[in-house]
Specification:
With about 250 residues, the chain is mostly beta strands. It has one domain (about 5-250). About 15% of the residues lie in helices and about 40% in strands. The protein contains 3 helices and 15 strands. The strands form 2 sheets. A 12-stranded antiparallel β-sheet has the order 10-11-12-13-14-1-2-5-7-8-9-15, with no helix packed on it. The protein has a 3-stranded mixed β-sheet with strand order 3-4-6. A hairpin with a 2-residue loop joins strand 13 and strand 14 (about 185-200). The longest helix is centred in the C-terminal third of the chain and has 18 residues, at about 215-230. The two termini are about 30 Å apart.
Length: about 250
């Protein structure tokens, strides 16, 4: 395995108290954390230590403040971790927003050993969810959210994460799903279904023209769809309410 790009579609399906859905094309980078410096080989399109069009900056993820991320994840998951790949959005022309990023951890036999989710909100806060159960290269995690993400979903709902990578002869497929559940009933399902592409100059140039200013588009669409839900008179939850239900939050 090596760093690559996953290109596909994001779907959001809200089932109650009103029905509402959206779908859009999307891509994310899948980075080998042991080989980040190789990103600079594609400068100025892609970079790590330099400012490129697509740029990975550890400062965008508060968990990287840990001195040794691999050892930290070994301690909290109690699993063998030989290699870590990070699914995330990169800065595009200097700007980034990550509603969710995912650490895929593999053992010495290249089998998935643990999956760790990093959820972000528009207040520049992040929270780590790290208790996934992995079976047959599929990861699942059910846990209380206790984090302010959407102003239209209660903070004490349950997150149900599911992720899977399927390796084929010439490509990989990645599927990510997050259900928001209240009283054993789904409120919202968000999915990302994608296929891998190699990181090379041709594919990077194609991304620039196919997904111009993607990270700015993400933040715009979040506010646009929030306005639509507010207009439909969905109950609005303020950020400063229920602070006791905002726990283990990471701040920059």
């Amino acid at each position: 395995m090596k760093s690559k790009i996953f290109i596909g579609k994001v779907h959001h399906i809200r089932t109650r108290p009103i029905k509402y859905s959206l779908s859009l094309k999307h891509f994310m980078f899948f980075l080998d954390l042991d080989d980040l410096e190789s990103l600079d080989n594609f400068f100025p399109l892609l970079s790590y230590k330099r400012k490129g069009i697509f740029n990975f900056n550890k400062k965008d993820h508060y968990i990287f403040n840990k001195k040794n991320l691999k050892d930290h994840f070994k301690d909290i998951t109690k699993k063998d971790i030989h290699k870590i790949f990070f699914l995330t959005n990169l800065r595009i022309f200097g700007y980034v927003f990550n509603p969710i990023s995912v650490f895929f951890c593999f053992d010495k036999n290249k089998k998935l050993s643990s999956v760790i989710y990093e959820v972000g909100n528009t207040f520049k806060e992040q929270k780590i969810f790290d208790k996934s159960i992995v079976k047959n290269n599929k990861a699942s995690l059910k846990t209380k959210k206790l984090f302010y993400v959407s102003p239209f979903i209660p903070l004490d709902t349950v997150f149900h994460f599911f992720s899977q990578i399927i390796s084929e002869e010439k490509t990989e497929q990645l599927f990510l799903k997050v259900d928001s559940i209240q009283n054993d009933s789904k409120i919202l399902t968000a999915t990302f279904s994608s296929k891998s592409k190699e990181i090379n100059y041709k594919n990077l140039i194609s991304l620039i023209f196919s997904f111009p200013f993607q990270t700015l588009r993400i933040i715009f669409l979040i506010h646009w769809h929030a306005f639509i839900l507010w207009f439909k008179k969905l109950k609005y939850i303020k950020k400063n309410e229920n602070k006791d239900k905002q726990t283990e939050v990471l701040y920059g």
